Amino acid sequence: MDMLRMKTFVRSHVLPYDLVHVYLWIKYYINTWHGPLKTSCKNYKKIFGINPNLRTPKTLNEKIVWLKLYDHRDVMQKCSDKYLSRQFFVDMFGEEVKQYLVPLLYQTPNWRDITMDILPDVPFIIKPTHSSGSYQIIKDKANVNIKMLRRACMWWLKFDYAKFDGEWQYAFNNRSIIIEKLLQCKDGYIPNDYKLHYINGELQFVYCAIGRETTNKRNIYDANWNPVDFTWIPKEKDPSTIRGEEIDPPASFHLMKKYADEIAKLFDYVRVDFYDVDGHMYFGEVTLHHGGGHDVFTPAKYDQLFGEKLHLTCFNTTNNG
């Protein structure tokens, strides 16, 4: 069972936390032995059937893998940490952006601090600050199995996500658990997730996660909100089942672009995520290596097309072996 399916299984069942973490720890130790270069190439080859061309990368996925391995700047650690990124946004834009941060309800570096007493009485999301795809949404703490929640938090804090696929920026972060207020629209559902993808400072497309508690679809639009005819998803997913009904741009789309345009100036490639809750914008997260460079474009030509657009500004000054 691959990582994506394993995560889905865990989120859908109550008991298998110990089993999934046995699997993750086995892969963790294998990858620690391999090192980030071999691990990234091995994972890439598993998806695409060939090793990534890191001497002269051509496709967007190859270039994301290259950035993951060789572009190591301090700012990348701060903006990728789910707790430190809050200060990253304030440092960039000033105190005014605090109104756009998801309300923080609790933060701790110790899983033992997670008790029923500290859990909020409002719907919330709990997650580690140093990984991707690990979280629990809790709408009523009366239904919480606190023993299993504490166990999940313990595993999250022990796990070095950087070893899993070479995403170095997670290795040195001070690991902690955060609890944020769960964003909900007037209909009671969590909002759509708008992921703005930038290449060399220009918005290329918006990847929308729609109806995440219901239909759970993925639509992609260009910078002017015209539908585009490609998908960029894990290999295990069927592209024909991904796209949902067309949607209008969020009411705060102009504000999303305003802030994301500035963040994008710092990176060759970056994905900046936002939510819109009944017209009010919230920052999501900054993602430096979408899918780890392993998501599959359909049609495949878009991998090449966006790869040609991406100019790696530090490529010629970096010894990539």
Kindly describe this structure.
- With 321 residues, the protein is α+β, with helices and mostly antiparallel strands.
- The protein has a domain at 59-71 and 185-321: D-amino Acid Aminotransferase, Chain A, domain 1.
- The chain is 33% helix and 20% strand.
- It has helices at residues 3-12, 17-34, 36-48, 60-70, 74-80, 84-93, 146-158, 162-165, 253-264, 301-309, and strands at 104-108, 124-128, 136-138, 177-181, 193-199, 202-210, 217-222, 231-233, 269-277, 280-287, 296-298.
- It has a 5-stranded antiparallel sheet with strand order 7-6-5-9-10, covered by helices on one side. A 4-stranded antiparallel sheet has the order 1-4-2-3.
- A hairpin with a 2-residue loop joins strand 5 (193-199) and strand 6.
- It is globular.
